[in-house]
Design brief:
Blueprint: H1 6-11, H2 16-48, H3 53-103, H4 105-108, H5 113-125, H6 127-155, H7 157-166, H8 169-204, H9 206-211, H10 215-267, H11 273-314, H12 321-325, E1 344-351, E2 361-368, E3 373-377, H13 384-391, E4 399-404, E5 407-408, H14 414-418, E6 421-424, E7 433-434, H15 435-440, H16 448-457, E8 473-474, H17 483-495, E9 501-505, H18 513-525, E10 531-536, E11 547-550, E12 564-565
Helix pairs in contact: 2-3, 2-6, 2-11, 3-5, 3-6, 3-11, 5-8, 5-11, 6-7, 6-11, 7-10, 8-10, 8-11, 10-11, 16-17
Length: 572
């Protein structure tokens, strides 16, 4: 981490006014420090000459005023910097969440949600120290020593030279310790993010771990990661204490050198008493900002390390590259084909994920006519979910073409395209709220009548039997409902959207045969006016489907079958 992170300052543009106020108040504090030292030296010198309190009343009132003004300016600078930190944290959180959503579930599924949550919460909270204390102190560490050296040199050039020579020792030692601090802080933050992500995964999978007797093993894993994080945190604290010791010792020795040479010349009458007092009062002020900025560097290191992790997420390229590289000539729904009448064609499409040598899908040729019910079957790992991700624009084809009624899929605005799609993933998530609120997530602002109609279409008659019907609160993940009931709510959420293209990813997986049959019946009853694509392991879905696409099977003759089977061999 450099003295000033340019990326953080770039994202601090929204808080630029607060930072300017903090810098201006830093200038005011610098002037007040010099004024305070001059007034105090004058008061002490006058008192030594026998002047009474009455003669010093004006000087003491001014001194008290300067002290209060210095406290007010310091407070105002820190308050402005805290406002800047709040603005930057809010901006970074919004950007991070927005970018994660745009990266899509395919990317999020490869991450640890707990680690991302730790970065966006505790990690960014560490920026308070960076903006409220480190940056203002960094400004003072430049302004105050320069002003002090200039003032002392004008008063006594020998003391000014001594301070100017010894002053660079503080940043030199701080830099030497800081290089080790940066690596250690990054390791500590990485272990904390790893611990947060692993702990969340363990809590979410605790029933499965208990069922298979693996809970004890995970206890050992968590204990190991916790121990590593504790060791890293203690190592960071040791470095911070060592840094404080080195800097304090350096500043004390440098101040002692100035005090000794000033005292000797004062003793032999080579330096006026008031000038000697001014030099002695200002000398500690020259070293204090540099020591303080080194201490605040350690305090803000965790927030800066977390910000680096967030910048890494923000710099992750979006999967929809074609739409960004070649913007469409029209915008919004104007150039978006209507999926109620448009035909989707995939020609020799291949999808490959970064870091994998084998394509996840393809080469695939598929034509999707409006109103079709298409069943995608095949073993796990053959590309069924990847095909749905392609249609959702979560991934882009590495080769081949995807078009909609002659318009390239990449030329269609993403938001307008997804507005015509309803999607039920393999593991639909439910949030804290009522049954009606969870269903209405599919179409924000949906009326209660629309919610109830969608639930009826999904066959979710069980809702009426709940304690409060549609107002029954659901906990996180709706664990009080059965798998079949959760799947029916997910279908209701998709149906309330009334989208022309419905994508279902394993809607009957892990369900009992009776529940799976009920879901299959619901899907077939929803085909009116919709194109439905179902990815499934079950072979029973072939009945009533206009196409059955078998992944990982032998090549079939599509022209010779009433229900066409289009084979593709995406090698796992």
């Amino acid at each position: 981490m450099s003295a000033v992170d340019p990326k953080l300052l770039h994202h601090a543009r929204a808080a630029r006014s607060y930072l300017i106020v903090a810098v201006l108040l830093g200038l005011v504090v610098t002037g007040l420090i010099l004024t305070q030292a001059a007034l105090l030296a004058h008061a002490l010198a006058s008192a030594a000459l026998g002047h009474g309190v009455t003669a010093l009343a004006g000087t003491l009132v001014l001194l008290l005023t300067v002290v209060l003004a210095r406290a007010a300016a310091t407070y105002g600078g820190e308050a402005a910097a805290l406002r800047a930190a709040a603005r930057v944290k809010s901006q970074l959180r919004r950007k991070m969440i927005r970018h994660c959503l745009r990266l899509g579930p395919a990317w999020i599924g490869r991450q640890q949600p707990g680690a991302i949550a730790a970065q966006a919460t505790r990690g960014l909270d560490g920026l308070d120290s960076y903006f409220a204390r480190y940056l203002p102190q960094l400004v003072l560490s430049v302004l105050v020593p320069v002003a002090v050296v200039a003032t002392v040199t004008a008063t006594d050039w020998i003391s000014g030279v001594v301070i100017a020579v010894t002053l660079p020792l503080i940043p030199l030692f701080a830099a030497l310790v800081g290089m080790h601090t940066r690596a250690q802080t990054r390791r500590q933050w990485r272990l904390l993010a790893q611990l947060s992500g692993h702990f969340l995964d363990v809590v979410q999978g605790l029933p499965t771990l208990k069922a298979f007797g693996r809970a004890k093993f995970q206890e050992k894993v968590i204990a190991k990661v916790t121990g590593e994080h504790r060791s890293a945190a203690m190592a960071t604290l040791r470095i911070a204490f060592l840094s404080a010791l080195v800097l304090e010792l350096s500043a004390a020795l440098a101040t002692a050198v100035v005090a000794v040479e000033t005292g000797l010349r004062l003793l032999y009458g080579h330096l006026p008493y008031q000038a000697a007092l001014l030099v002695l009062l200002l000398t500690p002020e020259a070293y204090l900002p540099l020591r303080a900025v080194a201490a605040q560097y350690h305090a803000s290191a965790e927030g800066a390390a977390a910000a680096e992790s967030i910048f890494h997420i923000l710099e992750t390229p979006l999967p929809v590259q074609a739409a960004q590289a070649a913007p469409p000539l029209c915008a919004g729904m104007a150039c978006t084909p209507d999926l109620r009448s448009a035909t989707i064609k995939l020609r020799e499409v291949i999808v490959a994920y970064p870091g994998r040598h084998v394509p996840a899908l393809g080469p695939l040729n598929l034509t999707i006519e409006p109103g079709e019910l298409i069943m995608i079957t095949g073993p796990s790992g053959t590309g069924k979910t990847t095909l749905l991700n392609l249609l959702l624009r979560f991934v882009e084809p590495a080769a081949g073409t995807a078009s909609v009624s002659g318009t390239g899929l990449g030329a269609i605005p993403v938001d307008a395209w997804r507005a015509q799609i309803a999607w039920v993933p393999q593991h639909p998530h439910f949030f804290e709220g009522s049954v009606a609120e969870n269903i209405a997530l599919g179409q924000p602002g949906a009326t209660r009548a629309a919610v109830e109609d969608a639930a009826g279409l999904a066959g979710a008659a069980f809702i009426e039997a709940l304690p409060h019907g549609y107002d029954t609160p659901l906990g996180e993940r709706a664990v009080q409902l059965s798998s079949g009931q959760r799947q029916q709510l997910a279908l209701a959420r998709a149906f309330v959207r009334d989208a022309p293209l419905l994508l279902l990813d394993e809607p009957t997986a892990h369900l009992a045969p009776a529940a799976a049959a009920a879901i299959d019946q619901v899907v077939r009853g929803a085909t009116a006016g919709r194109t439905i694509i179902v990815a499934t392991h079950r072979d029973t879905g072939a009945r009533g489907a206009s196409q059955v696409v078998t992944f990982g099977g032998p090549t079939a003759d599509v022209a010779a079958r009433p229900v066409s089977a289009l084979a593709m061999a995406a090698k796992p």
